[in-house]
Design brief:
The chain is α+β, with helices and mostly antiparallel strands. It is 33% helix and 25% strand. Strands 1, 2, 3, 4 and 5 form a 5-stranded antiparallel β-sheet that branches.
Length: 104
């Protein structure tokens, strides 16, 4: 009953924060495990293909509304995700003046 999201040949396992590709491990054995905020950010974007999310929307949903972090925190996490995802990062698109989206 583990919650998961399948995008193409990539599967994100919500409960374990692990990503697998084509049934193969991505990164470490058993899959690439991401820090919670990075995983939740990626999961959110992939759950709504082509939908633009503002930094504020992402902050409110993934970080606590009362968080002292500013919206640039999202930029830092996106940059980390892009480094970790390699070629797949091309689908995480910055929409200038708006925010981010996963472009199918």
């Amino acid at each position: 009953s583990e919650r998961k999201l399948t995008v193409g040949s990539t599967v994100l396992y919500y409960d374990s924060l692990i990503i697998r590709n084509d049934g193969e491990s991505v990164g470490a054995p058993g899959g690439m495990e991401l820090p919670q905020k990075e995983f939740l950010l990626l999961f959110k974007l992939l759950s709504y293909p082509n939908k633009i999310f503002t930094r504020r929307q992402l902050m409110d949903e993934i970080w606590d509304m009362d968080s002292e972090s500013d919206e640039r925190t999202v930029d830092v996490h996106i940059a980390r995700l892009r480094r970790k995802l390699g070629d797949a990062a091309q689908y995480l698109e910055t929409v200038r003046g708006m925010g981010y989206r996963y472009k199918e």
